[in-house]
Amino acid sequence: MNAARDVKIAYFDNSGRDDKRRWWQDCLTKRLGPCQLVPLEDSAALACEYALVWYPPQGRLAQLKDLKLIVSLGQGVDHLMADKSVPDGPSIVRLVDPDMSHALSQWVILNVLDYLRDGRYYRENAQQKRFEARDQRQTKNLPIAVYGMGAIGLVIAQRLAALGFDVSGWSRSARHFPEPIKSAHGKARFDALLASCEIHICILPLTPSTTDLFDAAAFAHMKKGAYFINGGRGKQVVEADLLTAIRAGHLDGACLDVFAEEPLPPQHPFWQEPAITIWPHVAAQTNPDTAADQVAAAISAAATGAPLSNLVDKSRGY
Ligand SMILES: NC(=O)c1ccc[n+]([C@@H]2O[C@H](COP(=O)([O-])OP(=O)(O)OC[C@H]3O[C@@H](n4cnc5c(N)ncnc54)[C@H](OP(=O)(O)O)[C@@H]3O)[C@@H](O)[C@H]2O)c1
After folding, report:
1. Residue 1's pLDDT is what?
2. Per-residue CA distances from 208 to 92, 197, 213 (Å)
3. 50 plus 138 within the same structural domain
4. CATH number, domain at 295?
């Protein structure tokens, strides 16, 4: 992009690993020419026009006075929306990487099929050396609701439909999803999906209107024996209410990749609940090899004033 001097990009992720920064630097250098990914905490970052970040320390981006563009290192941007000091000036773009939708749909399918085929029951039996069958459940008897039908949710819904499930998708605005997926939006349809589906998959962005969406009332609306999967964000769930619904025997269980507090604290009651499967926020991890094209394109566009793709609507929060 700029043969005269290195492109300097302020960089932060919350992994504490420097190899990721170097991996991004290599990927972006291949696409933009010489690039320096400057750790966001360094004083040299203060002069950067571009930032590539994941959960940056609150208040730090506001100190970068020449910032033109903030790129989220993942598809979610709640980490940026939560920092009220992030200035309005710079555009915010997020990654929309088919590799991420692919990975997240694998994780959902793995866990939906484990539920369908009574994985937990057979694992527990194997520990007791019990060789006993349960009647096999049928996909057509387990309607699924996918809450959040964006870049990731639509892929999940299409792949589950291809496996023979009866799938409904829930979005904010009225949308028409490809057959055979049923389309739903709005509060009334939310309650209807809670009441009619057996498996509930959340892949929503975290915004004020999705915070605490899955609370005691939502779990009470679900059928007895329903199963809940969350790959969105932990704060979309009132965790104590989920635990109560499971311990009361109303829900069959849950599979969670995201939590209100991460890492999930050792004393958290979820660790003690066998009906909850815990994953450490790994359903889909950002892959610089596949995502770097978009980051490079966003930086080139911001440098020339060209239109940006995957721009975040700050008023909507996603
Ligand atoms: N666990 C992981 O490893 C992992 C990895 C990547 C992403 N994620 C999570 O997945 C989320 C979704 O990513 P994405 O790229 O698919 O997002 P996206 O393309 O922006 O899609 C968001 C979807 O959610 C819907 N939505 C937003 N607010 C809503 C509301 N109040 N009521 C109903 N529907 C609402 C949107 O409706 P409209 O279609 O009407 O706009 C859209 O269908 C991310 O924000 C992140 O939290 C998790």
Report:
1. 60
2. 18, 25, 10
3. no
4. 3.40.50.720
